[in-house]
């Protein structure tokens, strides 16, 4: 048994051991575990989870269907009816009920599996070193002995001993209660009884890295870890009820109470007319089962969950089902520029160094290219090489060659562009770091807008910096020219600032580079030598321009938010068609506005430049206070407050940190703005399909109960038997209804204004269409039944004609309710699943009417051609009635469309 195994009593106090002792104790080297050893340890220690997430078994789901009191009563009553000699009809009732139970089981099973797939897709990951190679793996597969890579924004996947720390800080408030980030280091701690908060050489599962970077070796996973909330990380898909489901629960309960009252009246009046008690009791329960819409929330869950899976194909992963409802209401999308509106493939195009202007050829990350001066290829002069060296050394990215022709960057694309530019001059970052090993760094943050690294040079130190031109110039006192160093004059500052503005105006992202030779660690942030300006371009994504046009047609306002220079931001926004009549505001200008003044201006601003994460939060709040539903993108640790505040927080799946992903409602797997727009379209489509399903289902229920209540009040015999009413319910709630839940989206969906989230699904036009459809169904079928009885037809034939008419009307309504505004004649058969469902149900209906072995249990009669002509003609009258209602809806006579 190795020393990492829990329960042995021999687990060491890891913080007391030195780095070498800890690695030896765990049997691992700097190269990490091998894949084979990791697999063996995973089998030995189990997955890195606190406890298994509860999964609902298929049997539990099936048994859940029988918890409906009405179903149980109906089955018991059917059994009692068999004992009283009504065997055939009771068996038919039981079979139909079991089919309904099976349908409910299939629906809930699909919903459960859909949510489970979403959990798996959203499971957290971690970076580890295995077989000497850094790679990404699921957090649940982390094992003791794994060497994990820690960077700002990462969620710590397991308890681990720090073996390397560079300005490393961890947010441990959830574990220790300490509100400030804890500084981390790698030296051993003598106090064996130190508390978790005092173990500065340990990081703990469930906490997050807030600053710096480092490496650590895992010492405890799952149940053996200090932190007790690893399992919560896997519960990233919220299976709780969405606002729409809660609304439908209330509507369902209201309809159920009304239905029970009507059913009670029908049963009592039947008994008063001398109908047998058992027969009326079974009929009453069957009618209640048919008209009580107990499946509404479950069907909404299915629609949402399956819709979310479709979103994954559009590179958008939803972490909460409730967010899907909000998506369709989005009226503003605030998007980062780099990587979201642009391709995130930075390439250095221009360099200004030593007072001279150079251009750089080549594209992408291939380190092949030339340096040109006045259009002539040259060898980079020493002062230009010094600027290139500074950019490479003040970067963490690495240039990797995958094959003979393909190169890629591991790390930040902006840093990658600097490293590639240096490589084009023959400057290797690896060779530089071999001669000038890095010993200290001050990482880049959104607030400081610069990065400084310190390197050992002989017996002294040299510092290099890169960042926003105005920030770097603020710490420079000297300038490197072709003739050497000289003091930086006010004229030099003006020329450099003007040059930076001109470069930014050409849509270039501009960084400045500087150095401080012969420095001390205490004085690295001042008296630097300015080396030059580097202009790089990140081309816009080709699909974004069309996506922005779609936004405008859909009434959704796109807003760019970037840390770049305002001129760069303006040039990119104009190229994309995002900046038209609005204005550009900088973070500094935003600081000058109080909350009220900013709220008055916020709707006129289309681009924010040089902003910090704190500014994002102000933008979200101001837009929400103006009544907007806001989607906000973010990728950094400090973006988390804005992502949580936004109605739809959108994290970047490629460049985003774990903290930002956990704060967001949606994660883009391709970091693409067009994917946000596609998700909005999908969100609108999901809500529309839920609305179609509800209109169809509730209108059908109104028609069914209206028919039975009307006949009872008129003193007529019941127009449908218990078996028939249950079958109508099964045929209505079954395949046609499910087919509407996957109806193809309306091509004009993204030409409508965003839906007001406060209106819900039951708007006046929707309620009007449901009521008209239900009432007309009641009138047609009740009139048909009474006419058939008065025309000399038998009760069985009249009931059969009414039964067939009711089913056909439901089918006509299924096509009508594919839209609450468009004519049924507008591409009526585009939903092939609905076509197949109706065809199948029609075949079953014909079989029930004509096959002798089905006629007896269903109480049907073989209709003549004349009967069919009457029934079909009457059922089809619902089409012009609903078309007239839609015409009134389009005119606004029945309330505003949403």
Radius of gyration: 35 Å
The share of residues in extended strands comes to 15-25%
Q: Roughly how many Å apart are the termini?
A: 66 Å
Overall mean pLDDT score? Answer: 83
List low-pLDDT spans: 1-9, 229-240
Largest sheet: 11 strands, mixed
Task: Classify the secondary structure makeup into a structural class.
Answer: alpha+beta
Task: Give the beta-strand count.
Answer: 28
The helix content, as a percent range, equals 40-55%
List the total number of helices: 32
| Form type | elongated
Helices and strands, with pairings:
Layout: H1 19-26, H2 35-45, H3 58-65, H4 69-83, H5 87-121, E1 125-130, E2 133-138, E3 147-151, E4 159-171, H6 173-176, E5 182-183, E6 202-203, E7 208-220, H7 230-234, H8 243-272, H9 277-291, H10 296-313, E8 316-318, H11 322-327, E9 332-336, E10 347-353, E11 356-360, E12 371-373, E13 376-378, H12 382-393, E14 398-401, E15 407-410, H13 413-424, H14 429-435, E16 438-442, E17 450-457, E18 460-467, H15 469-473, E19 476-481, E20 484-487, H16 490-505, E21 509-519, E22 528-537, H17 544-553, E23 557-561, H18 566-576, E24 583-586, H19 587-591, H20 595-601, E25 605-609, H21 613-625, E26 630-634, H22 640-645, E27 648-652, H23 658-663, E28 666-668, H24 673-713, H25 722-733, H26 735-740, H27 764-790, H28 795-816, H29 832-850, H30 852-858, H31 865-876, H32 878-891
